[in-house]
Every structure is written in structure tokens, then in C-alpha cells.
Design goal:
Helix content is 75%, strand content 0%. By secondary structure, the protein is mainly alpha-helical. The protein has one domain (11-106). The chain starts with 10 loop residues before the first helix and ends in a 7-residue tail after the last helix. The relative contact order is 0.13.
Length: 113
């Protein structure tokens, strides 16, 4: 191989890799993660248009998939945390209402609550 011949770089594959890295870094935000992953997949597919295998595009695609999986895990975890919080809040509200009923019955005002 001649040392003067430069290897061709595929700008779209580099863009796919960069958006894959950005996607992993911001994978905890679903609002930014989804568009970044879409750009990763789009640039990866466009870079393969010339039928060459490009490892940067493949790595970018894998990183995009990983960022989506991390984003889904974070979203499910946050939804579970919110559900537990609101469920506990409802239980506390029910307990407070029951205590209020007992207090009102002690004073003879039982039918208000």
C-alpha cells in the first residue's frame, strides 16, 4: 500500500458515530434522546449507500440502540417512582380523612365526611 494514498473517510459515518456518542451522553432525557437516535440511524443508513462496510457507522448504530435502551429503562424507572409516590400520597390522604371522620364522630358531627 502506498503511503501517499489517504484512506477515504465517510462524513456520514462520522456523523453517525458522533450522534451515537451524544445519544449515550443524553440518554437520560427522552426528549433529546429520540431525535438524536433517529439522526444516528439516518446517518448510518446514508453512509452505507456506497455499499462499503464502515465500522464507524456500525458503532454509531449500536450506540444509538444502547442510548434508546437506556432511555427506556430510565423512563420506566421514573414512571414507577412516580406511581409509587402518588400511591403513597393517596394512602396518606385516605388515612387523614379517616382520622378526620373519627374526630368528627367524637364531637357528634358524624355525617359530614
Amino acid at each position: 500500500m502506498d503511503k501517499n494514498v489517504k484512506a477515504e473517510t465517510n462524513g456520514l459515518a462520522i456523523a453517525s458515530l458522533v450522534f451515537g456518542i451524544i445519544g449515550i451522553l443524553i440518554s437520560w432525557t427522552m426528549v433529546l434522546n429520540i431525535p438524536c437516535a433517529c439522526l444516528t440511524f439516518a446517518f448510518s443508513l446514508l453512509s452505507r449507500g456506497n455499499k462499503k462496510k464502515c465500522s464507524m457507522a456500525v458503532i454509531g448504530t449500536v450506540m444509538g440502540i444502547i442510548s434508546i435502551v437506556i432511555g427506556i429503562v430510565v423512563a420506566v424507572s421514573l414512571a414507577n417512582l412516580a406511581a409509587q409516590y402518588f400511591w403513597n400520597m393517596l394512602i396518606d390522604m385516605d388515612r387523614i380523612l379517616e382520622e378526620g371522620r373519627e374526630i368528627l364522630q367524637q364531637f357528634g358531627v358524624g355525617g359530614v365526611l
